[in-house]
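FAQ: What does a ligand-bound record look like?

Like this one, built around adenosine-5'-triphosphate:
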Amino acid sequence: MSTEPVEPTSDAVSDVMDKVVNLCKRRGFVFPSAEIYGGFRSTYDYGPVGVLMLRNVKNAWWRSMVQMRTDVVGLDAAILSPPAVWEASGHLANFTDPMVDCRSCKARLRADHLDDPDVCPSCGATGTLTEARNFNLMFKTHAGPVEDAGAVAYLRPETAQGMFINFANVLNTSRKRPPFGIAQIGKSFRNEITPGNFVFRTREFEQMELEFFVPPDEAQRWYDYWCAERYEWYIQHGIDPSMLRMRPHDADELSHYSSATADVEFAFPWGWGELEGVANRGDFDLTQHAKHSGEKLEYFDQAANARYIPHVIEPAAGATRAMMAFLLAAYDEEEVRGELRTVLRLHHRIAPYQVAVLPLSRKDELTGPAQRVLEAVQPHWMCDYDETQAIGRRYRRQDELGTPYCVTIDFDTVTDGAVTVRERDSMAQDRVAIDQLVSYLTERLI
Ligand code: ATP
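The answer part, i.e. the structure of the complex:
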């Protein structure tokens, strides 16, 4: 694992960031939200290819964490939740940033980010900052028509609590016993004071979290296991190990209930940044919810005739943040025959489309066979179909979308029943019989 900090120059930062953000807008990955109304700060919409890619990131996680295992089950819990949940979890009391207001320019600033506690960095005035107050990061709303205290609800700031409050439901219905996990993917909301760096930090984002419940004496072993698994996951999905590191938290960074936490970090253009945290949370969460709800949240081990509160290992990742890391890691430019080629070298499971079907011309002679090729391939993979523009430009477009294979139907297809398959990274071309195409692609897109 690499531990060398990355210190890119500010030019390099803006260069690769600008290029990726620009590509995202130009090709339909990510749009600034409410753009026709001037945008809404730090919210983004995922466009026609962005939604495919984000879905693929989530599917790849789900595949590894749920589909390919027998010890993890899924959950999709509510986003709106009553204060009691956040009271028990500690979020109402502790999920805060210390904030100061400037009486002069009205800026609201994070107290722990000030260079000089007496000077407003926004307007430069001295002595205008208020005392620091804790600002809760949870979005608060009211459920129902009356906005009184009894109707207060919160948008979840993490998906994790859904797993803890359903622990007994899952235990009673799924026939799982520790060690086992509950996995969830979904939106979370945090009223971040300093959102930014594109989709790295937004107020509305998606998380992919696993709560893995283990016998207390197995916690350390499972913590080590999940740290290794989660680090490997990013490599298996195409991120070069030189852009990743595992950073164990120092003792003073740990939450009071966590005996160990490590972050999977990615070399973002501005430096190392967290992609995912893996934490040994002990029995804190189940104990808290048992205390506050009055329900027993424990496991009875019949073989040992013993009752215990499982300990929890939590790998908590961001789907939108991971998508950004996959884009940055995949972005490449190279010179091909005197021209600049931009290519996203995405893993085939993460790329928006796996296959593009491209008839060389719009003549019926070719669009007919192209439709038949599309019908053969579409049930297996997400396909783009494009019959306009010169073929070279269509290849460039697919390169920028990260499509691993382009299938071209040309005039020879009519007589030889074969198509040209072009591979994105090497640009190598193979002639493949149409009736062999699905098996040819299956071998490569497994
Ligand atoms: P950070 O230190 O970056 O604020 P965190 O330690 O508060 O993150 P966790 O609460 O551990 O984050 O959440 C797990 C994951 O959720 C993070 O590793 C990140 O990938 C993602 N995440 C958290 N906050 C945001 C956000 N505001 N925007 C996008 N993704 C986020």
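Follow-up question: can I read anything off the structure? Yes, for example: Residues 1-8 have pLDDT under 50 and may be disordered.
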